[in-house]
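Notes on consecutive records. When two proteins share a document, each keeps its own sequence and its own C-alpha cell line. Never mix them. Below: protein one.
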Amino acid sequence: MNTPTPTFDRINELIDHPGNLYTKTIELFASLEELVMSWTDQNDSLFVNFKQRLQQLYYQHNISEDLYDQILDFKKNIESFGESDSTSILNENFLAGLSILIQLTALKYKENIPSQLQEWILPSKNLHKKSETTFYKTIKASIIEIDEFVHFILDEKDAGIHVLKFNSLSLSQQSQLSKAALIIKFPFYVCFHQIEKKEDGWKTEDLVIFPDYLIDVTSIASCYQLKHSQPIKHFINLFSFSPAGKSILLGTAVNDFLDELIVNEEAQYDELITRVFYKNPFAFSLLNQTDMNDFFTETKKHFIHLKEMVHDHFEQKIKHLNQCLLEPSFYSTIYGIQGRLDVLHVSPHEKRTIIELKSGKPFQSNSYGISASHHAQATLYDMLLRSVYEDDIIQQSFILYSVLEKNGLRSAPYLHNIRKELIYIRNAITMIHLHLALSDPEKDSLLDKVNIQSFAESEAFTRRDANIWFNAYNALQEVEKNYIKQYSKFIAQEQLIAKTGLVGHLNTPGLASLWLWNNAEKENQFAIITDLLITSIHPSKEESPLIILKNKYNKKKITNFRNGDTLVFFPETENKISVLAHQVYKCTLILISNDEYHIRLRGRQFDISQYNADQLWILEHDVLDRSFKYQYENLFDFARADENYRMRMLGMKPSGVLELNDQDTQFIPQATKSIIHKIISAEDYFLLWGPPGSGKTSIVIKYLITYLLKYTDEQILLLAYTNRAVDEICEVLEALDIPSGKAFIRIGSKYGVNPKYQKNLLDEQLRHVKNRKELKTHLNQTRIVTATIASIQGKKELLLLKSFDTVIIDEASQILEPNLIGLLSYFKRFVLIGDHLQLPAVSAIPEALSEIKNVPLNELGIRHLNQSLFERLFYQCQTNQWDHSYEMLQIQGRMHEQIMQFPAKMFYNGKLNILSGDHESRQKINLVSQFPMFDQHTDESIFAQERLIYIPSTPDKKSSSIKTHYNEALLVVQTIAALKNLYEKNNLNWDESTLGVITPYRAQISTINNLLHDHGYDDIPITVDTVERYQGGARDIIIISTCIHSSRQLNQISSMNTQGVDRKLNVALTRARNQIILIGDPIALDSAPLYKSLMASYYKLEMI
C-alpha cells in the first residue's frame, strides 16, 4: 500500500471539503491552473493563454495526448459551468477535474498515485479524434519543433502533431521561422494561409508569425518599397521623435476637412482651420512664418479640391455619403494587423469602397500613378476587411491625392505579390519587437546587431534619423549602452504583455484578450459588459457623438470599469468572435451608473442605421501603443543628452550645490524652511521623501513655488502621475498670489480634470487667443504649467516652444524609469517627490523577469527594471552619502497618533511623528469625545470608542469568484449603517471626506456598491475603490475589505519590497485620519506576519 505524501494533501482536502459541488469544482480548477502554471514557469517564457502552457507540457512529453485533451475538455466545460446546473452535471465535472488533477500532480512531482486516490481516476473517454480535413484557407497552429520538418499542432480539437517540409517554404519564410524559433522559443503561434495536406506532408502558401501581436497598417506600409523593402526602418521609428512639422500638420488638417465635409457639405474653411489650430497649437507655434503662410495657401487649395470631390460623390464612386464610415477601426488575427481607414463606403450586397486620403503628391509613382507605400497601405486595408467580413462582396480601393486639382482619385488594385511582401514586412516588424523583448540583452541585443549599414537602401530621411541615433548611441560608454539595452528589453516586454496579455498567477489581460479569452473568462475577470442596447445617440457639431447604453435585461453587471476608461465598443455576434467580425469603435467611458453607460466616441460619426434596432453591444477595455513609443523616445533623449546629465542620472556623479543669496523667508514655516532651502540649493536634482500626510503637496510645493515666483525668474513645470494629483497641485496654485491672467496653464482633457480647474485648461484659454503671436505671448507670461506625465509626453512640442528651468514631479515613486529618463533632460533642474514605501510604479512584468543581471549596472545600484527612478536615485544617494540631494519629511498631520503607530513602527523605522503633542489636538484626543451619544448595548459602542477595529469574516459560500466576498461586502454595509447611525445621533455632518472603503478587486467594489444600493445608501457619499486609486487621498474613516478566501491569495493583496515593507498595506492603513476598520478572514490573514501583528494590535469585534 502506497503511503500518502504531502504532494497530494491539497487533493485530499478538496475531496473532504464540506462545500457544495460547484464551489469545490471551481476551487479544483483553480488548483489545476496553479499546478500547470508552476510547472511551466520554470523557464522565462511568457504565455498568452493557458492552452499555450499545456502545449509546452505536451511538446516536452510531460503529459500525454489523451490527458491534454481531457484538460482542454474540462476547461471548456468549466467556462459554461453554473451553480444552477443539475447535480449530475456538477458531479460529472467535479469527478473529471479530480481525475485530471490527480494524474497531473503525479506526473509533475514524479510520484506514484496513492492507492486511496487511484479509485478516483476515470477511464479514458478517447476524446482525441484525428481531423480528416486536408485543406484550410486560414488556421492558427502552434509550432513545437523545427528540424528538416516544421512540427505543429493545429488550433482545433485535433491535438495530433502534423509536419510540413521546412524546405517547402520560401527562403524568407524559412529565415523568419528560424529566427522565431531562436527568439520566441517553442511553442509559438503562427497563422497558416492556404495550407493543404499532401502525401509528403502539409504545404502552405503564407504564414503569419505571432498573429495575436497586431502591427499597425501604417507601420507596415511605411517600410514597403518597390525595389527593396526596409522593415528595419521600424527600429529607428521606435526611438525617433520629431515635432509635427508643416507636412504632418497639413495632413492632419486635410483629414479633418474630409471628415467634416462628409458629415456636413456646407462646412466652411475658416471654421475648420481654426479647429485644426486649436488641436495642435504648440506645433503650429514652432513653424516659421514662411511655412505658416505656405500652410494656409496649401490648405485652402486642398479644401477646395476636397469640397468638389465630396460634392461629386468621389467621382460617382460612392452613391450615398451617409453610408460612409469615417476612420473605422478593425482588427485581424489572420494577418496580425490592425488599422484605421480614412473612409469606408459600404453599399449593402454590392461593394465596399476604401478611400485613403494623402495630402502629398505621389512619390516615385508606380504604373497606377500612386506611391508604392500608398499602394501597400490600400492593400493592407483590403486584407483587413476581407479577414473581418469573410464574404464575397467586391472591394475596391482608391488613393485620394487632395493636392491634385484633376485626376486626384486613383485606383489601388489588390495585387497578390504585394500581399506576400507585406506579410513578410509584418513578420519582420513583429520580430523586431520580440527580439527586443525576449532576447538576452547581454548576449543577443538587437541594438548590437543593427548598424548604419542596415539603412544603406533606405530613404534619405530614414538614413538621417539612423545617423542621429547611431552617432548618439556609439558615443556612449559601455555601461550607458547596457542601460539602454536593458530598458529597451523592459519596454518591449511591457508592450508585449499589453498587446497579447500574460496568463499566470495574476492574469494580465492584453489587447489580444478581446479574442483569446471567451466571454466566460472575461466575466470572471469582470472585464466585459454585454447585452447592451443603445437607448440614445447625441451628435455634436464640435465633439464626437455621445452614446447612452442600457442593459437589455436591466441586470446590474459587476465590472472593473471606471469613468474615464478607454474602451472598445462593438456589436455582439453569434458563432463568431465579435471583435474580429465588425468595425470596432474606440470610445471613452464618461459615466457609469447602476443601469446606464455613457460613452463618448473618438471618431466623428456613428450611423445606427447600419444596425438592427435590437442589436446588442459589447464594451471592453482598449490598449494604446503610444505610451511605449514615448518610453523608447525617452531612451533616445537620454542617449543624446550631455555627458554630465547622463552620469548624474546613472548615479555616477552627484548633483551640484548652488550658492544662494540670503532672502527673506519669514513666510515659510520654521519646520519647512530647512527643506525648502535644501531644494532651492540643488543645482541638478533633489529627492523629497514624503510619507503619508506629510504635506508634500499642500505645504512643500506651496512654499517652494512661492519662493521661486518671488525671488527668481524661473519657468516652472509641475507634473504628476494622475489627474487627481494634478488637481491637488492646482488647488495649491489657486491659493497663491499670482497676478490675474498669468495664473497657470493646465494641459489635459476636460474629462480628467476637476471642473474647478477647467478654466485653466489650455483648450479653454485658447478661446481668447487669436493667433500664434498671442499664444506665444500668453505662454511667456505664464510661468507655471501643470499636467500629467502622459499629457506632457503627448505635447512635447511645448518643451521646444518654452524653456522651463525647474520641473517638479509629484507621485514620482509611481512612475517607471523609462517615462522620465529622457524627459528630464529638457530641464535645468528637477525635483522628484514621492514615497518608495507606498505603491510602486505599475509594471506588468513578473518580478523575476525584472531583475537586471549586469554587473556594472548592479554596482551602480541599478538592479530592478520595474523600480521607479525616484526609488533608484534615492537609494544611490543614501549609499553614496549624497545627503544634500534628498530629505525625508517626518511630521504628518493626517493620522491620529494611534493609527500612525503601526505604519511608523513597521514601515518608517519609527521616524513618523504627529504635528502637535497637545492632548487636545485632533491627533491625540480620545475618539469617544467625538461621539458622546451611543448605544452601549450594541456594536455602536465599539465604533464610538475604538479607533482600530478588526472584524473577522466567515467563509463565503455565495461568491462564485475568488475576487468577490459576499460576506465581507455585507459586513462593510452593516458597518457603514452603524457608523451612519452614530453620526446622526451626534449631529455630525457626513460628506465626501467622511468614509472610504478599500478593497483589492474591482469586482468586490461592484459587489459592495450593489449592496449599498440594495440597502438604500445611494445618496450617502461613500467612495469604494482599490488601494491603487486611493493613494494620495484620505478619509476620516477607512474600511478595508481584504477579500481573500485563502492564504494563497495573500500575494495578490500585497506588494512587498526588498526591505519587507508591504506597500499596499502601508497605503491602505495610512489613508485614515480618525478610525480604521479591517475586515478579513482570520485563517487566511494569519499566515502573513504583518497581518497577524496588525490583527493582534486591533480591537476584535465579532459582528453577527
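Protein two starts on the next line and is unrelated to protein one.
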Amino acid sequence: MGNAFIDIKGAKQNNLKNLDLQIPLNALTVITGVSGSGKSTLAFDILYAEGQRRYVESFSAYARQFLDRMDKPDVESIEGLPPTIAIDQSRSVKTSRSTVGTMTELHDHFKLLFSKIAILHCRGCDRVVERDTAQSVFKKLSTLAEGAPVILTFSLATSALPWEEIKSGLQRAGFHRLLCGQTLCELDDLNEAPAGGEALQVVADRFAYRAQNRKRISDSLEQAFHYGKGKLNLFLPQEDWRREPFSNHLHCPHCDISYRDPTANLFSFNSPLGACETCRGFGRVIDIDLDLVIPDPGKSLSDGAIKPWIHRARRMRRLLNFCARKKIPTQKPYGELSEKHKQLIVNGEGEFKGIRGWFRRLERRSYRMHVRVMLARYRAYLLCPECQGSRLKPDPLHYRIDGKNIAEVNAMSVGEAQHFFDALKPAGAADQVARLILDEIRRRLGYLVGVGLEYLTLDRQSRTLSGGELERVDLTTAIGSSLVNTLYVLDEPSIGLHPRDSRRLVEILHRLRANQNTVVVVEHDPEIIKESDYIIDLGPKAGEQGGQIMFAGSYDALLKDERSLTAAYLSRRKAIPFPSRNRKPFLQRSIKIKGARANNLKNIDVEIPLGILVCITGVSGSGKSSLVDEVIYRNLKKLKEAPTANIVDCAAIEGADKISEIVLVDQSPVGTTPRSNPATYMKAFDAVRRLFAAADLSRLRGYTPATFSFNVEGGRCETCRGEGFEKVEMQFLSDVYTSCPECHGSRYREEVLEVTYRGRNIRQVLDLTVTEALEFFKDSAEIKQSLYPLRAVGLEYVRLGQPLTTLSGGESQRLKLAAHMARAKKTGTLFIFDEPTTGLHFHDIERLLRAFNELIDQGHSIIVIEHNMEVVKCADHVIDLGPEGGDGGGEIIATGTPEQIAKMDRSYTGVYLRPYLTRDTASPFTPVLESVRARHAVPSPADDNAITIVGAKEHNLKNISLNIPRDRFVVITGLSGSGKSSLAFDIIYAEGQRRYIDSLSAYARQFLQVMARPNVDLLAGIPPTVAIEQRLSQGGRNSTVATVTEIYHYLRLLYSKVGKQHCVKCGRQIRSLTRSQILDRIGRGYRGKEVMVLSPIVRGRKGFHKEVIDGARRLGYRRARIDGEAVDLRSPALFNGLERYKEHDIDIVIGKAKAGGREVETMVDQGLRLGNGVIHLITERGEQIFNQRLFCLPCGIGYEPLDPRLFSFNSRQGACAQCGGMGFKWDFAPELIFADPRKSVRASLTAIADSFSTNAAHLQRAVRRLLQELASHIDPDKSFGRLAKKTREEILNGGSGPARRQAGGRAAFGGVIPHLREIWKDGADEANNELSALLNESQCSVCQGRRLNSRAQAVRVDGKSIWQVTALSVEEAKEYFDALDLGQGKDGNAERDRAVAEKITREIQQRLNFLAEVGLPYLTLDRRADTLSGGEAQRIRLAAQLGSNLRGVCYILDEPTIGLHPRDNAMLLGTLKRLKDVGNSVLVVEHDEATIEAADLIVDLGPGAGVNGGHVVSIGSPAEIRNNPDSLTGAFLRAEKKRLGPLREFKKSHWLTIRGAKANNLKNLDVRLPLGMWTCITGISGSGKSTLVKEVLYKGLKMKLGQFAGRPGVHKEIAGWQSLTRVVEVDQTPIGKTPRSVPASYVGLLDEIRKIYTLTPEARLRGYRPSRFSFNVKGGRCEECAGQGKIRKEMNFLPDVFIDCDACAGARFNEETLSIRFNDKSIADVFRMTVEEAVPVFHAFPKIARPLKILDDIGMGYITLGQASNTLSGGEAQRIKLAYELGKESHGKTLYVLDEPTTGLHFADVEKLIHILHRLVEMGNSVVTIEHNLDIIKEADYLVDLGPEGGEQGGRLVACGSPLEIIQDGKQSYTARFLRDYLNGGGAKSPPSRHKTAVEEATA
C-alpha cells in the first residue's frame, strides 16, 4: 500500500499560492476559510477534477467527449488520489423519471423485494394466486370427509385433428373416460366428439378421499398436472358437482387468468415490462388543460369564456352557429351548462370539431414557433388516465406486501416508509429471502431520516428538490451504494439544515468515512467543523489576498491557533456582535396572513412586522419556504401588480399597501458567461462608458458610449468579439482559453485604448479593485453610488472587470445583495432573503449583518429564512415553524424576540439558540460526538477490507457468497465455462463501474455502456472498477497502433488546433484574408453576375440540429443547403430536425444578388459573421470558399477551418477519396482467381465456389451462375494458361474480343473480376470475409499509402505532416515530442499554440512512455492493428488502459497472458504488482500457472463447467489451493509435468520445407516441419510465429491445393506438400453471428435429430417433414416470435428489452410441433439439453452420438444444443470446430493449423485438448500449433522456436528439434530455458533454474 495521504505539491490553481499539503485518506476533512479564499478551488478544481479525470481516462475517447471535461489542474503532482465523486448542489436533475426512490436506489430494492415475497391477488376475484403442487392440492383435500368421492380431470382443447386420432391418442396414454356435464362417458362408446365444442374433461382418476391413500392420489394429481399442461379440476359429486380448479402456473383457475412471473423489472416504471403504456412510466400525460382554456367558468360563451378564441372572430362565429343548431345557451355562464352541452363544446360533433379538435389541428402546425408558444400556454401535465399516476401497468399493482402494492409504498414519505418496513416481518421462507433486502431498505431509509429528509415522499421527482435536499439525497445514495476507496467531495451539505439536523448529518458523514472512503467537505458550519478528523483553513483574506494555508490539523489544535480567523471565532476570541439597539417595528405597519395552507402549512395565521429584521426558522421541511416563497412573495407580488388579483394558498393577506415593492434575493447564479462582471452587474459601467465617450479624443473621433462596450460591434476587438481570449475546443480534453493574439486580452481595438480618463484607458479601469475605483471616481457621484454597496458587503477587493463566473458562492450571494441595495430607490421595500449565509464564513456573516442594518436604517424591511444561529440571535423578530418536518410540521411553534424564543422548550430553534445568547456559557462549538468519532459506524461487511458478495446467481453461478480481499492480487480460475467471467465482469466490474457512473450527469450516462444490474442479493465493499478485457478479434485494417492507443486522437486534435495549413497547389503556408480582400475578389471576378452566398454552420456532425434550423428561421433566413440539397427552412419535414445518427452538413443561404452592389456586401458581412469567417460563393462557374483565416491568394483557393475529422482516415472529411482511407487499394487478383494456370477455367471457378463455407451458400450460387454465363461465350474446359492473352483479359475484365465473336455476336461477357466486385459491393460482412481470400493489396497511387487526402497532408506542425509523425517508431516519436517546442513561432500565435499543444503533447508522451515500458518501442505508430501479434495487441491494450495514476481502484483483467511468452509474463506480472503496490486491487481471470502462483489469493470455481459449474470449490493462497483435494486447479498445480502422448520417431517421417520466408519481419527463413507429427511453433511475442504459420505456410499450402485463403506471405517455395489433400485452420472466429445459429447445427447433428422426430408415429400420422422441426422456417415454429423464442420490446426512452414470447413461452415452436415427443422430450427440450445430458438420450443413433461424444470428450459437455453461437467464447468456438473435424472420416492427409488453442482453457481442458490433438496425429494427420503454453509445448513432437526478440529483432530461427533436444541445446532460446525449468518442476516462472530430475529421467 502507498502512503495514507493524498499528497499535493505545488498547487497554483486560481488564487492558490503554490500550496504543498497532505490530506489524510479514510478521514473526514473539512476545508474552511473566508469566502473567496480558495476552498472550492482546492476541493473541486484540484481534488475532484483530477480524481474524476484519472478514472474517466479508462473510458473510451468517444464516451469521454460527452462527459464534463475536467481541466488538468495547475499542480506539480498529486499522489495517492482515489477516484473522486462530487456531491454538490450544482448537479441539476432534469428528467421526470428520477425520483427520491430511484436516486437512493430504494426503488431498486423495492422491485427486488416485491419480486421475491409479494403475494399476487387476482384482478378478477381478488383471491390469492399461487402455484399449486400435488402436495398442496392434497393438503386442500383434507377438508373433505373421509371417503368423499372425487373425480379428477384435466382439460384437453379440441383441435382440427380427426376425433378417431384424438381418441386413440388418449387411449394409448391410458385414459378411457371423459366427464360430459355430470356424466362419466367411456371413450369406446363415443363415435364423435362431445357436442358443444368446449374443452374435453379427460378423467385422470376417480377416488374416494382417504388420508392413507396419499401416494396414489398424489401420483394421479402429478399425472393430471402433466397432461393438463399445469391445470387440473376436481369435481365433487356430493356437493352438486362443485368444480375446484387448480394450476401449477401463476394462474387463477377460477377466472382463468394467467400472470407473468414476478421479475424485478415488472415493478419498474423505467422498464418496458412494468411501465404504463399510456404514459410510458411518467405517471402524467401532456394534454390540453381545460382550466387554462376556460379560466373563468362564470363567463358565458358569448362573453369569451373560451380564452384562446376571444380574438378569433371566425372561430367564435362557428361556435355560436353550432350552439344555435344544438340549442346550447350562449348567454348562460359556462359553469352552469349541462354536462352534455359542455362535452359537445369540448369534443365537437360533425363539422364542428370542438376545442380539442381545434388544438389537434394546431398540433399539426407546431413546426411554427408561434404555434408552439400558443400550445404551451394551454397545455399541462395531467394525471395519466390509465395508471392514475402510479406509473405502472395494472398487473404489478396486484402484488401486495402487508396489504400494500408498490405504488402505495412509493407514495409514502420517508418517515412513513421507515415505520412500514420496520414493522414488516415476513414469515417462513419469505423471511430468509427478504432479510438482506429489507436490511438494505431499512439502512437507506435510516440515512434519509438521518439527514433530515423524513418529510420527502419517495415518488417525489428529483428535479423538484432544492439544492440542499438534492445534495443530501446524493449523500445517502453514496453511502447506500457501498462504494469503497472513493474520495467524496461535498459542497456545504449543511445548507438548508437546522442545527438539530446538522448533528445527524455529521453522523452520516462519519458513516461514509467508516465505509473506508475519504470525505472532503467545504464547510463553514461549526457543527460539522468541530466533528471532523482534519481541518484545512485557507486565508488570510479573499481573492488575490487568499490562497494560503492558515492552518492544517485537528480541531483541538485549531482552537489554539493564533493566525486562523476561523479559530478566532470558534474559540470565541472573536464574536459576531449583538445589535447595538433593539429596533421596534413601524407603528401599525405589518403584513398579516390568514389561513396559509400551501403544502404542509396547517391553515396558520402569521403577522410580520415591517421596518425590522424578521427571521423565519424551523427544522428542515417545517414549511418555511412554503410560507415565504409561495404565500408571502407570490401573493404580494401579484397584489403589487394588480390590487384585485386572486390570491392563492391562503385565505387573506393584509398590508400589501404598506410596502412600496417586494424583492426576492435567492440563490440563483449571478452570471453564466465571462462577459458579465461586477461593473456591469452593478450598472456602474454605463456611467464609466459615458465618461470615456465625453473625452476630447472620443468626441473628435465620433465615439459613443457603445464604442466602449465589449458586447457590441464598434470598439471591441472583433477577433475575439470582446471576450479577451480565444476558446479552443478540445473535444475529449477540457477546453483551452488563450489570450487573444489581436488585442492581447484587452478586449478592445488599439485605437479605442488610446482614449483615457484621468490617465487610464478603459482596460486599465476594468483592472481596478472596488476600493481603487471608489478613489479613482471620487468626483462621479453616480459611479460611487453604484459601487459603494460592494464595499458595504465586503467585496472591496474584487476587480471591476473580473468575470462573475470566477466568484465563489458566498461572493455571488453578497454581490446580489449589493445590487439590490444599490437599486432600492424607494423606502419601504420588503426584501426577502432565502438562506443568505450560504457559503459565508463567520467574518462574512458579520459584514452581511452590517449590510442588513444599513438597509433597515434606510427604511426597508427584511425577511430572512435562516438556520444560522448567528443571524437568528441578531434578528428583531423570530417566527419559528415546526415542530417537525413534512406532515409533522406547518405549525407556528413560537414568535417573538430571540430571547423569547430561547425560553420555549418546545422549540428546537430555542434550544440551539440559548448558548449564543448567553455570553458567559461555554462555547457552543464544543465537539459532542466523540462517541461517533471514536467508534466507526455500524459494522458493515466492508469492515474487513473485502468485496463482499452474497447470493450471486448471474448466469450459471449457484447462489454463491464470498469475500474477496481488496488491495490484493487475486486470480479467479476454474474450468472453462465455470462462471469466472460472470463473477469478475458481469458482477464485480459491472457493479463497481455502474455505481461510479451513477454519480455522473444523466446526459453523460447515456453515452456510456452501463452494464445491467447483476443478479446478486448483496454486493458491498466494492471500489470503482476498470476492466481490461481480452478482445479476441484482431484490430481491423482501419486501426493502427496510434488509433488503438488513442495517440492518434490526440494527434488529430493537435493538428486541427495548432497545425498550419499549406496550399495543396503551390505548397505555401496559408495566410489570413481581410473582408475588403474578399469583397474585392468577388467584385473583380464576378461583377454584374448573379452570385449566391452561403454560410457553413454544421460540418459532418450527427444529431437532429433542430436548434440550428430554428435559429436560422428566427433570424429570417428562408433557405438552406442540407447535405448538398437545397431545402426550404419552413418545410414541415424539418420540424422534427434531421436524422439523428447520420452526419450532416448545413449551409444557410444568406441571399442571391448581382456582384458589385451594396446588397452582396451586406450578404458577405452577414455570411462571415454567421459562418465564423467562412462563406461559400456559388456562381455559374461553380463553388468557391472564402475564409478570412485560410485563403491562398496566389492560387485563389479558400479552405474550410481545420477540424479533427480532417485528419481521420475513417471519416469522409479526411480519408483519401481513392482508397477510402485504407492507404491501399483492394482488388481481385487474377493470380489468386486462376492460381494454377494449368487448370481449366471451369475447374478454377468450381474450386472457388467449393471453398466457400455453408454460411456463404449464396456466393457458391453466384460463382456457378457466373460460370454458366461464361460457358455461353467460351469453352470453359480449356486450360486458362493456354488461352490467348486477349481472351484471358476478356475472361478477367470483360470486353468484346474473341469471346464475342465465338458466341455469334451475342452481348459481351461482363468479366469475372467486375462480377466479383459486384458481389463484394452487395455482400454482408460474413460473405465478404470469404471473398477477401481472392483480394490483393496494392499501395494507393493517390495518397501513396498515407491514407489522408491532399488537404490533410498539407497541414503541418513544426514542419511535419501528420503522416510523417505516425511513420515514426514509438522510440523516435518520444524523442520528437520531447524536442517539440511551438513557442518559437513568428506569427503572433506562438503563445496560444504553446498553451494548446502543451496539454495535448502531455497525453501523447504519457502513452508513448507506457508503450515503451511494456516492451514495444520498436512498433511504428502507423503499423496496422491486423498485422500485430496476439502478444503485441495485448500489451498495447494494457498500455492504453494502465497509464493513469489512480489509487483504490479495482482493475479486472481477462486472461492478460494470452499471446504472451513466459518471458513476457514476468514483465506483465511486474506491472500488475506495481498497480497493487500503489493501493489498488487487481483481479485477474486466468489459467496461466505463473500468474496463479504469483497471486495473493486464488478463487477456484467449478467443479464442472456450464450447469455443473458456478460453485466456489476453494479459495485461498496458491499453497492452500495446491493442498486442497477438492480443487481441480490444485490437482494440476501439484501434478508432475509428464508427457501424456506417445513419443514419435522422425525417421520414417516426410518433411515439409519452407524456403526463403521474408514476410513481415521474417529474415529469409528456411524451416522444416515433419508431416504426420505434431509441430509447435514458439517464440517471444512479435517474433514472427503467426506470419510464418498463417501467412506463409497456411496460405501457401491453400494455394498449392487450389484453394483460397488470400495472398501468401513472401517466400521462395514450399516443398514436400504433395502428400497433403487438405489444410484446415481451426481458429477462434465465431461459428455463427446470429442467435439462429447453434452448435448442434454446426457439428451436423441437428438434421439427424429432426429426422428422428419425423419418424415418430404422431409425426408420420400428421405427415410432418424434417423442416417442421426447424425454427428457421414457417410451419413448425412459433410465428409470434418467428422462432426466436424472444420478443423485442422497443421503447423510445429506454434500451430495447428481450422477453420470453408469450405464445410459446420461449420454446420457439408452436403447440402442434411441441406435442411430438421422442423419449418423452419435445424438440424444444432437446435444444435445452446440455451435450452431457444428450449423450445417453441419443446413444442408439451413431450419427448423433459420435459428435456428441466428441464434444463431451473435449470439455464442451456443458453447452446446450440450442445455445446461440454468438454467445460462445473464441475458445469454445475453436473446440466446436475441432469436434467437427474429429467427427469427419479421416484419410490422414490433413494438416491442421491452430493459433493458441489454449486461450480460455483451464489445465483440465488443456489436457483434453492435448488428447484430441494426439488423436488427430494418430489418425495420420499433421498438426501445427502456435503456442506459449508449456503444457502444449512439452507434448509436441517437434518444436520450432523463433526469435531471439520481437519486431525487427525477431524473425530468425533460434532452435528446432524435439522438446528434449531443444532444452539440452537451446542456448539462445528463451523457450528452452522456461521449458527446462518447467519439466524440472519449477513451473512457468522466471528466472529458470537447473535441476537434475525430470529431464535426466526422460533422457535416460
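For the record: The mean pLDDT is 84.
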